[in-house]
Amino acid sequence: MPQPSTSAPPGAIPVNRHPFRVLSPAVAVAGMLVGCGGAPVELEMAEGTRVEVVTGGAIESGMPNFARHDGTLLLSHLERRSDERWALRVTEVAADGSVVSGGDVVERDDFFVNWADFPSVTPFGSSGAAWAAHWLQRGPHGGYDYGVRLSVSDDGGATWGESWTPHEDETSTEHGFVSILPTDEAFELIWLDGRQFAEGRERMQLRAGRGGLSGAIGVERVVDELVCDCCQTDVAPTDAGAVAVYRNRTGDEIRDVHAARWDRTTGSWTLLGPVHEDGWRIAACPVNGPAVATDGARTAVAWFTAAGDVPAVHLAVAGPEAEEFSPPVRIDRGAPVGRVDVQFDAAGDPWVLWMESVADGGAELLLARVEAGRAVDRLLRIAELGAARGTGFPRFVFLEGGSALVAWTDLDGDERRLRLLKLPTG
To answer: Buried b vs exposed e over 177-205: b needs ≥16 C-beta within 10 Å?
Structure first.
């Protein structure tokens, strides 16, 4: 399998070494979705308020991520400060969507910066002041030698401890696509781990570890022995622990979305199998991971698939432990790019955010409410943006009073800009 040049400048965004197959386009649905009872769902133009985030002198910014725990909401993003230096920055966001404070976590010249694999800052513990940050850091061999680094703050981001890595191997292989689950005592994390590539086995694993204020807790564990190479993971809390979702890979290249459950008491992971058997056979990584959300009573999973060469965004709902999902509901308008996110609103309805291709070669960012998890009954157009990889993966959260805060990366020529929009959804 071809490897990238090791002479790329520091901080460059590498082309993913896993090829992406060009998919045949689906027939577009003209301007509307079909909702409950066959009624058409009109596309609404979202009217919101731009939220400005203070940057640290960025040449460009983007790749946002949200994390929430016990009333603390954090927004993280990357900033390029020079040709060689990047910074991970975190902003605390109030319940109404206003900016409380912001600052750098770390600035370095050896970040591994990738449009699809972005850092995070996650609050954990019961004090509100414990935050865990993760980023990707290049190894000495260049190319796709990179690992996960973690740092913890015990004072709400004012200072950060010495960084450490959750994976115990020292192979010059890929480690990334991290999801962090906060708990009242510490945090659980999962990541994609490529150490077997060093043994000549092209097998990516899903692994898990645990950390806290003092660093790693216990030993890492294998969750799944064979998964898709570079699709995002996601994790959401449940009363008993958590549900994680990821793109699996079988020996005959079926790459459907699977779920796993973490037990808070035992610390063990249990594989739950496919959320739905799409049967997507693709001998490459689509770089298009799933998203999961829970509301205490239910689990919602959104994902992109192109089974049968028909691109689609689906949503399926299950009980709190994600043991049996409903038949999937198709969310898209006929030509999705994917890059999904999902959240429950206060009324218990799941909303899905995704990107959809438009006729001029660009894309639009759409947000849909799925009434009772059964059918789309509201569809908002958030923004127009390019379909290029540089636009990354949009994210959103719900705020106090029912508004949503949507974050995405906008392309301004060849440069990226972080955008935030607060909009009513009631």
So the answer is: bbbbbbbeebbbbbbbbbbbbeeeeeebb
**Which residues have CB under 8 Å from 409's CB, separation 6+?**
62, 63, 64, 385, 390, 391, 392, 394, 416, 417, 418, 419
- Token readout for 254 is 């079926």
Other CB atoms within a 10 A radius of the CB of residue 426 amount to 8
Please name the residue that has the structure tokens 């019961």. 126
Q: How far apart are CA 45 and CA 311, in angstroms?
A: 24
- What is d(CA 249, CA 320) in angstroms, rounded to the nearest whole number? 25
pLDDT tens, position by position, 163-199 = 999 999 999 999 999 999 999 999 999 999 999 999 9
Q: What is the three-class DSSP state of 189?
A: strand
What is the residue range of 79's domain?
56-352
CA-to-CA separations, 74 to 69, 103, 156, 268, 272, in angstroms, rounded: 9, 11, 10, 28, 30
Q: Up-side HSE of residue 364: CA atoms within 13 Å toward CB?
A: 20
Number of domains in the chain: 1
Does residue 382 lie in a domain region? no
What is the distance between the alpha carbons of residues 226 and 213, in angstroms, rounded to a whole number? 31
Low-confidence stretches of the chain (pLDDT < 70) are 1-39
Closest by CA position to 350, among listed 377, 333, 369:
369
Q: Which domain CATH number covers 98?
A: 2.120.10.10
Cα–Cα distance measured from residue 280 to residue 249, given in angstroms and rounded to the nearest whole number? 10
What residue has token string 């230096």? Answer: 85
In a domain, 419, yes or no: no
Q: How far is CA 108 from the centre of its chain?
A: 23
Hey, is 144 helix, strand or coil?
coil
Residue 263 falls inside a structural domain:
yes
* Residue 160 dihedral angles phi and psi, to the nearest 5°: -130, 140
Q: Taking the mean position of all CA atoms in its chain, how far away is CA 267?
A: 23
Q: Is residue 386 part of a domain?
A: no
Q: How much is the pTM?
A: 0.91
**All residues at 6 or more sequence positions from 368 whose CB lies less than 8 Å from its CB, including other chains:** 33, 331, 351, 352, 376, 378, 379, 380
What pLDDT is stored for residue 32 in this prediction?
44
What pLDDT score was predicted for residue 315?
A: 98
Measured in degrees and rounded to the nearest 5, phi and psi for residue 37 equal: 65, 15
Using alpha carbons, select from 168, 308, 301, 307 the residue that is nearest to residue 235: 301
Q: CA 200, 190, 280, 392 torsion: positive or negative?
A: negative
